[in-house]
Amino acid sequence: MRRLHRLAVLFASALALSGCTLVSTSSSPTLVGSNDVPLGLLDSTIPFTVDARVLWVTREVDMVNHAQKVVPVKRLMTSPPTLAEVLYYFVLGPTVNEQSQGITTQVPTAATMAVNSARIRNGVAHVDISYDLKKIPPVGRRIAVAQFLFTAEALGAAKGIEISINQTPFSLQLANGNSVTLITPPELAYLKQG
């Protein structure tokens, strides 16, 4: 008898809940009133703070176009972005929309590579990554480094970039055969879309 009672309560509860839904069944968007948004998520300040505000800015990260030239694309991020934050969006690669326009990347994606640290000091970007760039063929390697270089340059690394792989300095062999650890914008300028 007790089992039958439990089964009846369970059935009645399921029947009552079947009429409830958290997801709209409408095929078109439904306007939500500002009074119905919880936790102050529409407030001009960060929820649960008095005056902290989030400011959004657009910054450039460099990808590769169909002609294998480095081109800037825009990413929306919080202000003021550090080099590490910009590189977080950089290693995510091109968006689906950008891919449909032929935009790609030579840089391994976040699933394969992590940016361990990144900072700009005295006009030089110092970036430590977890992926051995020597696994990329030489031409692709120079394009990948150019992507890092020009992304960092847009944030103020006018003197160039030094890359290390798990704290081991990386040396890039340029097209002329010279190897350098401090890679400057003029050395890879030919890879940038004019």
What do you see in this structure?
This protein is α+β, with helices and mostly antiparallel strands and 194 residues long. It has a domain of 135 residues. The strands form three sheets. Strands 3, 4, 5, 6 and 9 form a five-stranded mixed β-sheet that branches. Strands 1-2 form a two-stranded antiparallel sheet. Strands 7-8 form a two-stranded antiparallel ribbon.
Main features:
194 residues; alpha+beta; five-stranded mixed sheet; two-stranded antiparallel ribbon; 9 strands; 23% strand; elongated
Summarize the model shown.
With 194 residues, the protein is of the alpha+beta class. Helices cover 26% and strands 23% of the residues. The chain has a domain at 57-191.
What Rg is obtained from the alpha carbons, in whole angstroms?
25 Å
Main beta-sheet annotation: 5 strands, mixed
Overall geometric form:
elongated
H/E element sequence: HEEHHEEHEEEEEH
SS strand fraction = 15-25%
Give the helix/strand class.
alpha+beta
Low-confidence segments, given as residue ranges, are none
Number of strands: 9
Number of alpha- plus pi-helical segments: 5
Proportion in helices: 25-40%
How are the SSEs placed, and which strands pair?
Elements: H1 2-18, E1 56-64, E2 70-78, H2 83-90, H3 96-100, E3 115-121, E4 124-129, H4 138-153, E5 160-165, E6 168-169, E7 172-173, E8 179-180, E9 182-183, H5 185-188
Parallel strand pairs: 4-5
Antiparallel strand pairs: 1-2, 3-4, 5-6, 5-9, 7-8
